[in-house]
Amino acid sequence: MGGYLAMELLRFTTAGSVDDGKSTLIGRLLYDSKSIFEDQLEAVKTASERLGNEEVNLALLTDGLRAEREQGITIDVAYRYFATPKRKFIIADTPGHIEYTRNMVTGASTADAAIILVDARNGIIEQTKRHSYVASLLRIDNVILAVNKMDLVDFSEEVFDKIKAEYTLIAEKLKLKNVHYIPLSARNGDNVVNQSQHTPWYNGSTLLRLLESLPVKEGLDNLPTRFPVQYVIRPQRDEFHDYRAYAGRLASGRIQVGDRVTILPSFTESTVKAIDEADKSLHGAFAPQSIAIRLSDNVDVSRGDMIVKSDNLPAVDANISLLVCWLNHRPLSIGAKYIVRHTTDEAFAIIKDVYSKVNINTLEDIAGDKTVKMNDIAHIQIKTSKPLKYDLYAENRITGSLVLINEATLETVGAGMIVKSFEEQTFSI
Hints:
19% helix; 34% strand; globular; disordered C terminus; disordered N terminus
């Protein structure tokens, strides 16, 4: 059942440099798959005329804010939804500017696939490497290198093959799992939804057909069971005085009545007595269902605790090693205190050390550089005011991620992915 639900929806992100055609590509996907309304199309036609475009500018379908549309740039993550008879899709259209790496991290954090656009005239550039590194960092299983604007290089097979060969070396270095290469023209629709007659030398799928067939990341229900407690239910009415349940969303795995469970961080054990969902009782549940769990024993459980199966425990520790993408204009400060939010839990954390920083353009590690500014990605060590219950990000995206918050301004300043300690690994993907 969990596998069916996973196949129902594919989340993918798009990335590329400025003017590579991301918004046009998404507009073409929506337009050619008949996923836009007539009034939307009319609005785009009117806007295109006002901006002096001779043809309908499909990029205007996806550039969300009026101000940025009129400047001709995309400055934030825009989420779009569309569907075909085979699958539903959520698209995260992220900006291409180098100073918006943080936006790409946000857009790609839940993606099953990443489309990285390359202008056929320019080939692989530093931004291509940057976006590929982020895709690798976030463990995105499928990367599609979309070589766009092939119409401007006369649909040259030689140009395409050269770009493909160069990117293959990058993909190998970053250990990208599944890389797909497509020559296309978003503006004219070549190989986007419909097969192009201009690329008889290309025997692969169109972009849409590929998106419809990509395997979705292994379902959350197949991972170890993790149930962060969000709310403790204790009804006030006398007839329910014995009712006590723990509500939340199953972050991963499955759970059923009779399972032996451990409550963390206390390591108290109990058995699942009942599982409630809205107004009905269930024998079992799977991620990402929202449920309430009743236990056989009267144990102490509160918000932020985690209920897990006793035969598969996560790590419980206050010393956490992170890859962090810094999101704030104020640099990270060693020794500073931040708020950490992890699943339903919250704690304070002190930055103990910055081990190294990534030069995303060269894909190299910079040891000894302690300065972490906005859009930097660094390997750091934090110590939390109480132990966190976590898995490595590579094993579980939900329990392996956290955010750092400035306690004075309450701004989210860092997005962290929990990794092995610096002593256990060299800093590489």
